[in-house]
Structures are given as C-alpha cells and as structure tokens.
Design goal:
Blueprint (H helix, E strand, L loop, with lengths): L9 H15 L2 E6 L3 H17 L3 E6 L6 H10 L5 E7 L3 E4 L8 E3 L32 E2 H16 L3 E5 L7 H8 L13 E3 L9 E4 L7 H11 L6 H7 L17 H11 L1 H10 L11
Parallel strand pairs: 1-2, 1-7, 2-3, 4-6, 7-9
Antiparallel strand pairs: 4-5, 8-9
Helix pairs in contact: 1-2, 8-9
Length: about 290
C-alpha cells in the first residue's frame, strides 16, 4: 500500500478512522454505488465492525440504468456479515440527461416507463409500492434525497449519525477542498476527514466521513488483492477493453460524459447498451454516432 503522512500507510489510517467512528457512533450507514471505492470502503468497514462487534447499515441508490455486473456485485455486498439493514433504493428519482435538449432530466424507475426499464425491479428493494418515506415525491432530485434520507435515518435511530462516503481526493480538486479546508466546515471532534451535514431540522446531527479520502486508485486495487475483497467484474472488462485503472469510471449513462458512457456500455454489455439507448428521449440519437 502507498505510504502517506507520517509514515502511516493508508490502509492502517483508514482502519483507524473506521475504529474512531464505530467507537463514537451507535448508528452508522455507508453510501455505496457498486464502484470500486465504496466497495472497498464497506468491506473494510465490515472487517472493523467484526473486530469491534458492531453493526452498520448500507444505502444503495439504484439508478436503474446499471451494468448487470454492478447489480451482481451489490448482491455480493449484501452478504457482508455485519450489515444490519441494507437500503436498496429503487424509487423514481430525477437524474441528469445530457443527451437531450427536450428532456434535460429523466426519472429512473418511473412506472409509466416500465416497458423501457433497463433492468427488472429488484425484489428486495424499497420502491414506490412499499416506500416507507412519507416525505418522498416522484421526481425528487438525487441530492435532495440524500439529505432527506439522512434526516429520516437520524429520526429513526435518534442521536448522532455517521455516514461513510467512499470518495478519494486525488480524483478532483473539488473533492480535495471538501476534505482539506476544516475552517470552512463543522467537523466531528476536529477530524478533517469528517463533515457535518447542513439542515434546518432541529437536533440534526449527521456527519459524513471519508475513511479512504487519501487513497490512490493503486491503493484500492492493492487492498482488493491483499485482503481478498470482492469487486465489480465490470472493471476487469474495462481493463480488457483498453481502459487503464485511472480511466475506469462507473456513472449513469446520460451524464455529461454520455458519449464515453454509451460507448462503454456498447463494448462491455451489449444487451444492456441496447436498452440504455432506448430508455430516454434522444439517447438513441447517439447510436448513429458511436
């Protein structure tokens, strides 16, 4: 593993951060995407939870237009030994659609578009038919859902809450700023790798924490190898398709890098690609350009 500050390697540092969180918070959930970073984070958290005899929850927001291998990997993560509740969200959430001027947003899991869904509704999901969130409205923005879920979660369990987020600051300057500038944010006990979420709710005390913020992509794959972690096999296919470990990304296919995203779907999961092309207004335009 790569060496970082004060000769402490990043794996030991991440374990130390997770231990601090588990020792100071009774209610913890980790936000996962099925990507390599959040996958390593939650599997490492499971090892720490096992050592400390703790439980944690997981939040996964299923954006519908996913690789089949991503869903397969999510199902692997659901088997981690110290998960209390796994919130598999399959609700009609509004997402960016950069492939259309006429439809700048699309709504995943929209009932009216069931015949176009990229995948079937997961049987164990929280969906519009069994939704426990009284505050949820169809077409809610992704970012708003994240905050509302945190508020709901804290009210359910009471007390202060910690949410683990698997971001690495070497991927963008904005991510580095989120972590580095402690004087511009409220932290938990002055740990710069934590950030208190903002809300107008009374007694709201939820902290995001970033246990692998100082890792590199090489560190991620070193951890997978060294600790024998499960991983999303779509990365193996990306590598075989010519993408270096620094170029590999999981993202919803209609974002601002949509051409690269659709190209990737075409090369890696052709049957999924055909569904993705027809899922939103004007996305099929790209098949003439790819």
């Amino acid at each position: 593993m790569a060496k970082k500050y004060l000769e402490k390697n990043v794996l030991d540092a991440a374990i130390e951060r997770l231990e601090i969180i588990f020792q100071n918070f009774d209610n913890i959930y980790f936000s996962v995407s099925g990507g390599k970073d959040s996958s390593v984070m939650v599997q490492l958290a499971n090892k720490v939870a096992q050592k400390l005899n703790k439980k944690f929850d997981v939040l996964f927001i299923d954006l519908e237009a996913q690789y089949k291998y991503t869903i397969k990997h999510i199902n692997e993560l659901k088997q981690l030994s110290h998960i209390r509740d796994f919130y598999h969200i399959a609700l009609p959430i509004a997402l960016r659609n950069a492939v259309s001027v006429l439809q700048p947003k699309w709504i995943c899991w929209e009932e009216e578009s069931r015949h176009l869904w990229v995948q079937d509704m997961p049987e164990d999901s929280i969906n519009i038919e069994n939704c426990p969130f009284s505050w949820f409205k169809k077409g809610e923005e992704f970012e708003e859902f994240i905050i509302q879920f945190a508020i709901w979660y804290q009210k359910k369990y009471q007390g202060k809450v910690a949410c683990g987020v698997g971001i690495r600051t070497d991927e963008s300057l904005n991510r580095f700023r989120t972590i580095a500038f402690q004087n511009k944010k409220v932290t938990f006990e002055r740990y710069n790798w934590t950030t208190k979420l903002k809300s107008n709710e009374k007694h709201f005390e939820v902290y995001n924490f970033y246990p692998i913020y100082d890792w590199t992509v090489e560190d991620i794959w070193a951890a997978v190898s060294k600790l024998n972690f499960k991983f999303n096999y779509i990365y193996e296919l990306m590598y075989k398709n010519g993408l270096s470990i620094h170029e590999q990304r999981l993202c919803q296919p209609y974002g601002d890098d949509q051409r690269n995203g659709l190209n990737q779907f075409k090369a890696l999961e052709y049957d999924t690609w055909s569904k993705v092309l027809n899922r939103v207004n004007r996305s099929q335009f790209w098949k003439y350009l790819l």
